[in-house]
Structures are given as C-alpha cells and as structure tokens.
Amino acid sequence: MMKKKWWHHAIGYQIYPKSFQDSNGDGIGDIKGIISRLDYLKDLGINMLWVCPVYRSPMVDHGYDISDYMDIDRLIAEAKKRGIGVLMDLVVNHTSDQHPWFQQALKDPDGKYGRYYIIKEGKDGGPPNNWRSIFQGSAWERIGETNQYYLHLFNKEQPDLNWENEELREEIYTMINQWLDRGLAGFRIDAISHLKKDWSYTDQPADGPDGLVDGRSYFRNVKGLDVYLSELKRRCFAPRDCLTIAEIDDVKSGELADYIGDDGYFSMIFDFSHTKYRIRNQEWTEQPLALLEELKARIFEKQEYAYGRGLLCTILENHDKPRVPDRLIPQECISFYSESLLAVTYLFLQGIPFLYQGQEIGMRDYPKTSIDEYKDAATHQNYRAFIERGMSEAQALAQINIDSREHSRTPMQWDSSRNAGFTSGTPWFDVNPNYTEINVELQEDDPASLLSFYRKILKVRAREDLQDVLIFGKTIPEYRRMPGIFAYRREFESRILLIISNCNCQKAALPMEYDKAECIVNNYGDFDWNGNQITLYPFQSIVFLISDR
To answer: What band does 53 get if pLDDT is binned at 50, 70 and 90?
Structure first.
C-alpha cells in the first residue's frame, strides 16, 4: 500500500491568471487579483492552488514562454494564511525567445548559450529535418541569414532547451530549488515528456500536404528520458517532499510505477482519459449513450491502471480544453442536474481532484463567428491546417468552435456588472455574453446553485472519516450492463462508498440491496429506494456510505 503523504488530502483548483481577476484595470488578470479572491477559494473548499504562469513574459503562448521566473512571494504567504498551498507551473522544456539566454544564443549560436538550445545546420537549403511542430508548421526556425536553425516543438517563440547540456541542467536545478525556498508546495510540470530528443534528426515520409511529419516518436518519451527525470527528482523534489504533477499521459502500464507512487519521478500524473472526446463531433452526436460507454471504459481502465501503483490527478476541465458541459453533455440536456452529476462522478474516483476556474459555476464555451475573434496562435494554426486538408472556411471555423482551448480562457464571471467583474478596463479577451446569467454573485447565496452544490460535495470529499477509502480504496465498476448508468464502489477495509449516476434523460430503476446505506451526496432533494430497488431521476447522482459490514 502507498505511504500516506501530506498532499493526499489536497483538493485543488487551477487558475489561469490572465483570465481570473484583474486588479489594476489593464484588462489582464494578475497576482493581486488572485490574492483578492483567496477567501472565495477557501470558502469553496480548496486547499491547493495550481497557478498557470504569471511571470513577466511576451505571452506568446499566454504565459508558457517563460522569460522571468520570480516574484509571487506575497501570493504564497497569503494563501498559506488560509491553509492553501501553491503549485506553480514548471516549464523546463523551452524558454521564451525573449529570455536572456536565447538572446545571447542568437548572437553566438556556437557559444555557451547557443549550447543551451538545440541549434542545427540546415540541409539542402531547408531545415535540418521535416518534423512538424505540435502547433503546426515546421518545428525549426532559421536564425537570421545563417544556415542554422533552432528547434521549437511548440511555437517558434518557444525555443527548446538542450537537456543534454549538464551546465544548463545545473542552472535549471538551481532555479527550481530557489522557488521551493520561497515556500512553494510544488509544481505542475509542463511538457515533461519532451525533454529528451532522438538526436538522429532524420527525415521521415511526410504525412500531410505540408510535406512535414508528426515526429513525436522522436521527441516524446524517448529512451534516456528517465535519466533526466531521476536526476530532477534527486536534486530537487525528493529532498523537499514537494507535490509534483506531471503533464504526461501515455505511460505504459508496466512503467507507471517509475513515474508515480512512493518511488516514482513525480507524485502524480494527470488522467486525461476523457479529454479527447467531444459530444458535438459527428461520431457521437446521435449516440450520446455510446459515448458514455466509451468514457466509462476509458476511465475505469485508467483507475485499474493506477491502482496499487500510485494516484492520478483527476480533472474535468483545464486551460487546454473546451468547457466540460459543451464537451460531454448534449446541448439540450445541459442543466444543473447534468453538470452536478459530472462533478459527483469524478470527485469520488481514486485520485487527487483539481477543479478549473469557472467549473464550479458552470461556465460555458463561447463560439465565435469569425476566426479573427480568437487570440491563440495554436488556434489559428489549427484553422489553417483544417483548410489545407480540404475543409471550407465555415467548416474549419465550426471545428475550431468545437475544439478550441480558448473556450476555457474567457474571463472569470464574477458578477453581472460590466465585464463580469473581471476588470474595470478592456478585457484582453471577450467575456462570454452569458455572464449575466452565469456568475458567482448570482449563485453565491442560492442553495440550489451549482456553486453551492460544489461547496457541499467538497466538504464531503474532505471528511476525515472518508480519507482512507478515498485515497486507498479500489474503484470497482457497478451496473456495467445498465444503459446510461455510470456507477462504481470504492472499498477499503470496512469502508464502502457507492456512487451511482443516472446519465439518462428519463428515470432509471436499479436493484440495490443493502441493510444500511447512508446517503451523503444527492443532487436532488430526495430519492426513491425501497430496500431492494432504487429509482433515480434523470441525471440524478448519489453517493452512499455503506455500513453492512
């Protein structure tokens, strides 16, 4: 069994600072804005924050192109007063192209700082090879009028670091330990599977009309990555016993214990098993229950995959995905009941849960009428790629409106005032027009609101008497053959939790025979159980504490 850790009781909340709260009227969220909302987060039931990058930066990838790593001491101190730990994003695969290291590398590609990056000679008048960037286009950018190119797996403004360089690694370890010295609880670690590259850099057959190839097998989870991850843990994470969550989701089952658990490189990795699915994609639009069965299979598979090895970080939303109601619920079925059902279903899985800002009030996608209304470079690159593959402009925009990660980046909806209370100035990105109907102020004192429901279930999730079964309990699927039912047990020693969710638009009757079953969560006011059979309302979700043993 896993050893108990201080972070096993964590209930997390991810903040995308640029869109959370602006304090000075410039239209961009900031640290002071986060601090001003810490009491709200404490009242919600949060004890761990994951804060996306807020460092001074040209913001090409909205904060992920790090050009300055310091200056959030006050946030750490104020959060600590409220019993909240702070995780920051650790971005060590690449830097900003404005970072002093890279600016020096451009001046002298063969010098010290040039060796901090991956700079190669071009061939045949073009890049070193035909790898495609993850954000589309070539993964190589030419340096001025030279025949030298630097590698950028993401945007061209995010040059990849050369982890083969020991001197670079020492600088990174020093930076990480300085952060931990400032009182951070730990890190969410970005793009960690890309640190190691296959240095053969050979061309591969093109897989698209752009003449490029998806070269991920050459720069994701490449043999030798373990050397860097072991060193990173040994030099930084292990001595501090900090919480680390890695952005990596394709670890083979037999290798999982190397990544998480008592002896893993990290505390946890994310469970992204449901994040690729879209109810509005043609494959699923007419068969939502088939999508549910697929989701159940993937989620239970991931629970089994992790059991006995370590914990996953469980999420419904993050800054890189559309909002979950639009992603997983048929439009005509989106309501308090279907949204609260999602909350119950995922909050009681094995793992450490993290909410994303606005999830607790049911924030929604904001489709656009023109591609020009989107801000993200990756969105525009995907749009162009759709057109290159034969889509019309209207079709490409329609797919962007389904897939865009920018839906999760609209400003937080605090109240019904101008700009949803996010800023007194002009917001950097348009506020969703539905903010007058969906906002914190409207739900704050409404006992029947989604926000109030989240507060209730997070209190249950934090109950001391349930911690062992929630952390160590095995997830056992129930009612697998019942259409539209997502149900499972959590069992540990004498404790049993039974979670039942009716994902149908009509009532569902299920056999349920227990002598003693206490309802501890219910998104309806009542339920119908006669001791042998339970009948659930549409989108009803219930958690029972079973005491038969």
So the answer is: confident
Count the neighbouring beta carbons within 10 Å of the beta carbon of residue 176. 22
Structural domain contains residue 290:
yes
Neighbours of 358 (CB within 10 A): 24
Residue-level length of the chain: 549
Helix axis angle, 166-181 to 225-232, nearest 10°? 30
Residues 364-384 have a mean pLDDT of 94
Q: Catalytic residues, which ones? A: 190, 247
Rounded distance between C-alpha atoms, residue 41 and residue 456, angstroms: 14
The answer to whether residue 481 sits within a structural domain is yes
The Cα 211–Cα 78 span in angstroms is 52
* pLDDT score at 66: 43
Instruction: Please determine, for residue 145, whether its predicted confidence score (pLDDT) is greater than 60.
Output: yes
DSSP code per residue over 210-224: TS-B--HHHHSS-TT
Q: In terms of domains, do 392 and 334 share one?
A: no
The pair of structure tokens assigned to 435 is 């903010």
Q: Give the domain range for residue 108.
A: 100-151
Q: What is the pLDDT of residue 403?
A: 94
Q: Around Cβ 217, how many Cβ atoms within 10 Å? A: 11
Lowest mean pLDDT across 47-51, 487-491, 509-513? 509-513
Contacts of 528 (CB under 8 A, 6+ apart): 534, 535, 536
The average pLDDT across 492-502 equals: 95
Task: Please count the helices (runs of H) and the strands (runs of E) in the chain.
Answer: 17, 19
pLDDT category, 71, cuts 50, 70, 90? low
Query: What span, in angstroms and rounded, lies between the C-alpha atoms of 347 and 450?
Result: 14
CATH number reported for the structural domain that contains residue 118 in this entry = 3.90.400.10
CB within 8 Å of 456: residues ≥ 6 apart = 521
Q: What is the pLDDT of residues 203-213, one digit of tens each?
A: 889 998 899 99
Does any domain span residue 104? yes
- 372 with 504, same domain: the answer is no
Total domains in the fold of the chain: 3
Q: Note the pLDDT of residue 511.
A: 94
- Do 86 and 146 meet the contact criterion of CB atoms below 8 Å apart? no
Identify the helix (H) or strand (E) that includes residue 142.
strand 140-142
Q: Report the candidate in 401, 425, 400, 391 with the shortest Cα–Cα distance to residue 411.
A: 425
Structure tokens at 258: 């190397």
What are the structure tokens assigned to 104, written together? Answer: 């020096």
Distance CA 102, CA 68 (A): 13
Domain assignment present for residue 188? The answer is: no
φ and ψ at residue 117, rounded to 5 degrees: -120, 175
Query: Are 334 and 394 part of one and the same domain?
Result: no
Structure tokens at 392: 């019309």
Note whether 542 and 394 are same-domain residues: no
Q: Are 51 and 88 in contact (CB under 8 A)?
A: yes
Q: Which two tokens stand for residue 497?
A: 């939790």
- The percentage of residues in the chain with a pLDDT greater than 70, rounded to a whole number, is 96
Q: Which residues pair with 245 in a beta bridge?
A: 188, 268
Element containing residue 340 per DSSP (H, E) = helix 336-347
The answer on 341 and 481 residing in a single domain is: yes
